[in-house]
Amino acid sequence: MSPYITSLRLRTLPLSVAGIILGSGLAYSLSPFNFQLSTFILAVLTALCLQILSNLSNELGDALKGTDADQHGREAYGLQAGTITVQQMKRMIILFVILSVLFGTALIGVAFWATPYTVHCTPYTNTLIFLLLGALAIIGAIKYTLGKHSYGYMGFGDLGVFLFFGLLSTMGAYYLQTQTLTWEVFWAGVAVGLPCVGVLNLNNIRDMNNDRAHHKRTFACALGPKGARIYHSLLLLSAMTIMVLYGHYWTLCVLPVWCWNLWYLWTQPESKLDKQMPVLMFSTLVFSVLACL
């Protein structure tokens, strides 16, 4: 079982629920008596399945393209280590597609059909919209590196993470609880999406030389080592600024950790950056929780 657990990349899972927690927390602060715990739990389960689906598809896509054949400074996953076959990985991907569909469908049913609907949208309209968003999320999770035209190899990985982990996750969770949207929740989605992109950027800085050798055109590769570090700094500082401007001062508690992350990024070689990825993942989760206070 351990090779499968390794390929799930459990350390990435907290990041996948940061936007769900933020959007749900803002919804709770708006109307605590109408908050649905079942909707929140199903949203978390759906997000976790989508994250695992993305992790598995990413591993398979990189393995088939040979990108993971010779890398240093990172953990070897199942396919790279030879402990999982391609067919086993494909079966795992199918399993998590099914789980994502099941949890997502249950989420839509509980959020829009088990409670009275608003005058703005009927449950039919909401259901159609969220089914389309769910389908896009599944396709986005699979197509990051898997397939001939994977967007992660074309420099659009950062945009995908920002949209799915930031805006869609936060605004979707908020809407599922309230069936409304506000500018504050939009900017909250932007704020949590930026450090999520930062995690991917750390990964891409670490793998920059290897990615270039295998024609993986990440945004970090386009910027170069110094440019990618400046970009990373702007991501974190912009996220903190947005939250402070909206009065979420508790998020400043994360600032020392992010300053340490930036210091490490600017002073350490790329091969050591893997150690900072869980730091940024967990601090982003804490950041989203503190923003709800």
Question: Can you characterise this structure?
Answer:
This protein is an all-alpha fold and 293 residues long. 72% of the residues lie in helices and 0% in strands. The chain has helices spanning 2-8, 13-16, 18-30, 37-65, 78-81, 86-113, 123-142, 157-178, 183-206, 208-213, 219-245, 255-267, 276-290. The chain is globular, with a radius of gyration of 19 Å.
Quaternary organisation: single chain
Rg result: 19 Å
Order of helical and strand elements: HHHHHHHHHHHHH
Q: Biggest sheet: strands, sense, closure?
A: none
| Fraction in helix | over 70%
Strand tally, please?
A: 0
Distance between the first and last residues' Cα: 39 Å
Secondary-structure map:
Elements: H1 2-8, H2 13-16, H3 18-30, H4 37-65, H5 78-81, H6 86-113, H7 123-142, H8 157-178, H9 183-206, H10 208-213, H11 219-245, H12 255-267, H13 276-290
Summarize the structure.
With 293 residues, the protein is an all-alpha fold.
